[in-house]
Amino acid sequence: MNASIHLDHGWFPIPEQDGPVPGTTLHATWRRDSADGFTLTRLALLNTGDAPVALGSCHLLELDTLDGLRKGDRVFLDSGGGWPTGCVEVTSTIFSPRYAFEFWKEIFLAREDIEWAADIMEASPEKLQQGAPGAHYSFGGIGAVQSADRGLVFGFTAPLQRSNATPFLLCDPATGALRRLALASNFAGFLLQPGARVETEEAAIAAFPSAQQGLEAWADMSRRRSNIHLRHETSPVGWLSWYGYRLDITADEVNRVADFIRGTYPGFGFQYMQIDLGYNDGNIPGKWFRTNDHFPNGLLQFADDMRSRGFTPGIWCSLTLAADGILAAGRLDNAYQWFWEPHCPVADLDPTHPEAAAFMRKTIRYFKSLGIKYFKIDFLNRLGRVDDAYHPYDPSVIRGAETYRAALKLICDELAPDDFLYACSNLALHSIGLASTTMSACDIGNTGIRHDPARRDFVREQFRSTMSRYFLQNRLIQLTADAICIAPPADLEEARLRTLFVALSGGQVFLGDQFQRAAPEILDLVRRVLPPYGHAARPVDLFGPEGPCILRLDTPERPLYSFFNFEDARTMRVDLPDDREYDVWNFFEERYEGRARGSFSCAVPAVAARHFAFTPVSDAPRVIGTSFHVTCGAVELSNLESTPHSLSGYLTRPAGDFGKIFIMDEHDRLRTIELTATEKPLFWKL
């Protein structure tokens, strides 16, 4: 297990024992530990010389052999942000033409690591930048590989605190055999002053019977070891303006939508009404203190209008961006064109610069003075970059994770404990311990995916990335699968797929387009995913060739299986993990599918989803499904009491909500109870 560090004049081996790093003025001190099956390693470096030392990438561990790894095995990679996340064959690549993941560019990676990998892969750095089969990195700080007989999890304890820490897996593109595995903590040119000391991130590696089990164990270990407390334990419900209106949102339209929600979904927990870009002066980043003519009476009137309707106002803001002329100093040297009209030049703000920090604080305090309680802060990911445009004003701050977290810490300092912070277009694992929720993929996009292959593939990518991160939900941070979009041209099948996807992510449930134009049967789907269950479904096929496509959500009474098909109509099959016999209930079709043991197959239309409740067979009457909620009882039914010949309980739903409870009685006859919910829990009995 070799270790080395890159300085201005090349790579230098680091001894396995504490002591000087030969050829340098650095003294290395190792801290080795173990927790929950993981071998943990951290390195401290002390500059014993008289001059500063520019630190580059530090490889805490390198392996060049890994028994059993071969072609066909799959590796889990986390891009770190809204770019693709998931599993791919070790001989392939998650090369995304749309997003810069596995591009091997000097945005988030050290130049020396790109050259190191290129040399091992016998390719040029330029070739790596086009996506090289077999060459993998996981900017999110965690990776896992599944071979025939075991899983290996490798990466760093979350969250990354100071440096961008990246696992690398380099495999032979023909055979899949390991060429090199490395865990690198990138100091990104940080100047270590004489007598000063700095530590790497904590490397973590462990073998498990399955890599998926290892990812869950890694999240649990990180939470305990880093003492992570979720900023918010429950998933909120609300609405956002972007997909329905883009820059055309108006104060009057927000009021109309709020009135529609209040009239259509009373009692279903809608709390936040959040407006996106389209409200501020010129739609220009940095001009936050005046509104445009779409909000002629200002943001205070918007906030008052929402409160008067029983909602809490929320705001979108690209807080860490500013257009030319907004600040005299504190902007990073990376001007680029704003994505929307007026397409003005903008640049990122340096959260370590006093003027930029003061401006950011002033902006948050302004929003707070209006009573804003939900903050969607966008385009944070750029602050995690390590390229030459990013040199923090404060020389004690390392480019990358520490700069990024400095911005989030500044924001959190200004917020009250109950203020909700959504880190959007962000670095997901860098946000742990600070943000309430993280964007778990990219924008979900508008409807019309069933007959548009490009849109379909885009949504599939977002589904894959979000559900591949399921192990973060409620362990390290809340996930956000963006929003439920169900407006025309969505048909019932697309609406089912989209609402079920958001519900099974476990995170917040926000409506996101002109949903009020949808048919009544589609509008009713929203009721069926509220309140949020708060737990993410676990992919059954995370490391499968198409995964994830099949999800399992465990509830106290029963597991539920969901099948997501982004292909042509086909039959999908799942192996059940035990030998029990189950009654199977089709939630969307309200149909009994018979019994299953060992496996279950179902027909799924093209670009559609199916959702089933699996209830263990018994001799007593038992609930096998409901039409009230996708959990089929976990949310809405309580105090169930069963005798050999009767079954009773309480239904808790918003008053007026009509639905059915489906019961298999002691004679294996299907029975149905129709109920309309009341203000108090409603007793029922068969």
Describe this protein's structure.
19% of the residues lie in helices and 32% in strands. The strands form eight sheets. Strands 3, 4, 5, 7, 8, 10, 11, 14 and 15 form a nine-stranded antiparallel β-sheet that branches. A hairpin with a 2-residue loop joins strand 1 (2-7) and strand 2 (10-13). The longest helix is centred in the first third of the chain and has 16 residues, at 211-226. The protein is globular, with a radius of gyration of 26 Å. The model has no long low-confidence stretch (mean pLDDT 96).
Morphology call: globular
Q: Helix/strand-derived class?
A: alpha+beta
The proportion of strand residues reads 25-35%
CATH topology of the domain at 2-226: Beta-galactosidase, Chain A, domain 5
In angstroms, what is the radius of gyration? 26 Å
Main sheet specs = 9 strands, antiparallel
